[in-house]
Amino acid sequence: MTDLTEKPQDSAALHNTKLQAEVDHLEEEIHRITNKLQNEGFISRVPAAMIEKEQKKLADLEQEQKKAKELLLAHS
Predict the structure, then answer these.
(1) How many folded domains does the chain comprise?
(2) Close Cβ partners of 62 (under 8 Å, ≥ 6 residues apart)
(3) CA-CA-CA-CA torsion for 68, 72, 75, 76, nearest 10 degrees?
(4) Is 52 among the domain residues?
(5) pTM here?
(6) Angle between helices 48-74 and 8-38 in degrees, nearest 10
(7) Contact 31, 62 (CB under 8 A)
(8) In a domain, 51, yes or no
(9) Is 7 within the bounds of a domain?
(10) Closest by alpha carbon to 69, among 11, 13, 10, 24?
């Protein structure tokens, strides 16, 4: 018979794994948007409103990443 009870250390490890995956995903998104905003071709052909939208998205992602990293450190 399989033990279906979850041990606390297993739960914490799973939580940390999920947090690390979230941090990694946010890092990829931040990198993608940063590259887009540094691309002169993108900047020169899109409306200013789209650039502002991407800048806001970048700031929001950076804030989310900061919170996720703080949670990860707190649970380590």
Answers:
(1) 1
(2) 30
(3) -170
(4) yes
(5) 0.80
(6) 160
(7) no
(8) yes
(9) no
(10) 24
Both tokens of residue 33? Answer: 């948007």
Within the chain, residue ranges assigned H as helices are 8-38, 40-45, 48-74
In this predicted model, what pLDDT tens digit does every residue of 9-64 receive, in sequence order?
A: 677 788 889 999 999 999 999 999 999 999 999 999 999 999 999 999 999 999 99
- Measured between alpha carbons, how far is 37 from 74 in angstroms, rounded to an integer? 32
- Sorted by sequence, the CB contacts under 8 Å of residue 20 that are 6+ apart come out as 72
Domain of residue 30 covers 21-74
Q: Quick one: pLDDT band at residue 1, thresholds 50, 70, 90?
A: very low
Q: Please report, as a single letter, which amino acid is at residue 52.
A: E
State the CB neighbour count (10 A cutoff) for residue 26. 20
Joined together, the tokens standing for residue 3 give: 């033990």
CA 21 to chain centre: 8
Is the residue at 57 inside a domain? yes
